[in-house]
């Protein structure tokens, strides 16, 4: 037995075992994959690790002489273990296409071909028609050897044909993952027919499995992130869009009394309230950033309704020279609503709300200040819940930030910063 041959076997086996173990550990501990994919790749890498361990045992046996019978048994086990993984590529393809592999004609054809391969493998144990133990303690191969491997090659060709045929049922990344798992294995089998060495095949299978798993993991991580963003959007939208029942009741009651006392003002409050409601309902369907001027119009409508009810106790100052930027819908209005709701105190001085904007070197800034009760003194954490949801939408939709500064006995300041990409209409 040549030292070079043993060294080659050891290198290929070690590389295959390392890749298989890395894949197994990652499949076990990394979150982001669905249950079926996780179990599939844990099984696949676990089985590949077992195969590599058998190859390691074979390399150890090569160091000893006169163990031909033992080597023939090891070879037989290697041929079975290596080939057993090939039908599982078919199983994965069928799963990704939403088909049951148990009722699939493709899978039955694959199993039939695999059965032919296994029959030829068993037949070789008694005849030596395809391979045998040579006197130099190395495997010898007959000209009929490619015939034994051909059923596996036919399986892979069938898999590739069916993969292309079913491409419309797969996502782009899943298609390329299956391609990464099948094409190199097919090429390796073709090479193996001319240069029989299953350690090369094992290394190829390990590399393909890692590439396949990496693509699938990347796709599922992206999908999970998209789902989390959608959930954040929905949760934030639902909580921000909840209108206070008592605000609606008070507004309608005010309009009712104004119809008799001041019909002209009642008409104006009705128009303001209608504008406020229209903006709220429009925002429900909006998934893009909007011009600041639209959000300002919504805020003005809300404040006009509130000032009709608190005419002598609510005052608003606007300092908004900068308006040419975009922000998520229902950003400024809920902040101002919190400033009114939690700043109003019947026993204190009138509430002053200040809304300021300015252009900065990094983008745009909005500041909302109130002179009333600070948030920490509120009876519950509702303002923080609403503002946290606004913060989520700012970060997700335009990369913005929200900061709160409460001053005991002086009120609260909320500062929004929107980067230049978002301020200029990015992510619209």
Give short descriptive properties of this protein:
single chain; about 425 residues; alpha+beta; 14 helices
Explain the layout of strands and helices.
Layout lengths: L2 H27 L5 H27 L6 H17 L1 H11 L8 H23 L3 E3 L5 E3 L3 H21 L6 H23 L3 H43 L4 H17 L1 H22 L5 E2 H18 L4 E6 L6 E2 L4 H12 L7 E9 L3 E8 L11 H17 L2 E7 L3 E9 H4 L5
Helix pairs in contact: 1-2, 1-8, 2-3, 2-8, 3-5, 4-5, 4-6, 4-7, 5-6, 6-7, 7-8, 8-13, 9-10, 10-11, 11-12, 12-13
Q: How would you describe what is shown here?
A:
By secondary structure, the chain is α+β, with helices and mostly antiparallel strands. 66% of the residues lie in helices and 11% in strands. The protein contains 14 helices and 9 strands. The strands form 3 sheets. A 5-stranded mixed β-sheet has the order 4-6-7-9-8. Strands 1-2 form a two-stranded antiparallel sheet. Strands 3-5 form a two-stranded antiparallel ribbon. Helix 3 (68-84) packs antiparallel against helix 5 (105-127) and helix 5 runs antiparallel to helix 6. Mean pLDDT is 80; it is low at 376-381.
Helix percent reads 55-70%
Strand portion, in percent?
5-15%
Count of DSSP strands: 9
Q: For the CA atoms, what is the radius of gyration? A: 35 Å
Which sequence of SSEs, written as H and E, runs from N to C?
HHHHHEEHHHHHEHEEHEEHEEH
Summarize the structure.
The protein has 428 residues and is α+β, with helices and mostly antiparallel strands. The protein is built from 14 helices and nine strands.
């Amino acid at each position: 037995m040549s030292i070079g041959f043993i060294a080659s076997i050891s290198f290929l086996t070690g590389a295959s075992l390392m890749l298989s173990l890395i894949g197994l550990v990652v499949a076990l501990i990394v979150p982001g994959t669905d249950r079926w994919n996780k179990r599939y790749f844990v099984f696949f890498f676990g089985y590949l690790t077992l195969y590599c361990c058998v190859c390691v045992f074979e390399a150890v046996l090569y160091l000893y002489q006169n163990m031909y019978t033992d080597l023939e048994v090891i070879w037989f086990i290697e041929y079975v273990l290596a080939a057993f993984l090939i039908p599982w590529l078919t199983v994965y393809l069928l799963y990704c296409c939403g088909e049951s592999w148990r009722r699939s004609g493709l899978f039955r054809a694959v199993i039939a071909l695999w059965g032919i391969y296994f029959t030829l493998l068993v037949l070789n144990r008694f005849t030596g028609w395809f391979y045998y133990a040579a006197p130099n303690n190395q495997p010898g191969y007959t000209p009929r050897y490619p015939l034994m491997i051909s059923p596996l090659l036919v399986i892979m060709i069938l898999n590739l044909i069916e993969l292309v045929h079913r491409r419309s049922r797969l996502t782009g990344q899943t298609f390329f993952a299956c391609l990464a798992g099948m094409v190199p294995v097919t090429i390796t089998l073709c090479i193996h027919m001319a240069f029989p060495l299953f350690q090369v095949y094992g290394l190829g299978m390990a590399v393909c499995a890692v590439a396949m798993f990496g693509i699938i993991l990347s796709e599922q991580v992206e999908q999970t992130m998209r789902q989390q963003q959608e959930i954040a959007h929905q949760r934030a939208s639902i909580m921000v869009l909840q209108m206070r029942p008592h605000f609606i009741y008070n507004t309608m009651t005010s309009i009712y009394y104004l119809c008799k006392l001041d019909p002209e003002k009642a008409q104006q409050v009705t128009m303001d309230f209608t504008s406020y409601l229209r903006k709220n309902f429009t925002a429900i369907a909006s998934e893009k950033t909007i011009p600041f001027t639209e959000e300002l119009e919504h805020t003005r409508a809300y404040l006009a309704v509130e000032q009709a009810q608190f005419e002598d106790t609510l005052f608003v100052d606007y300092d908004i020279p900068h308006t040419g930027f975009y922000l998520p819908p229902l950003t400024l209005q809920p902040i101002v609503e919190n400033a009114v709701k939690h700043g109003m105190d019947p026993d204190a001085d009138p509430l002053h709300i200040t809304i300021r904007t300015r252009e900065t070197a990094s983008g745009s800034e909005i500041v909302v200040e109130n002179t009333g009760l600070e948030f920490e003194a509120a009876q519950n954490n509702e303002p923080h819940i609403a503002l946290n949801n606004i913060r989520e939408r700012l970060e997700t939709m335009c990369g913005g930030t929200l900061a709160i500064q409460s001053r005991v006995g002086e009120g609260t300041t909320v500062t929004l910063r929107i980067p230049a990409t978002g301020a200029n209409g990015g992510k619209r």
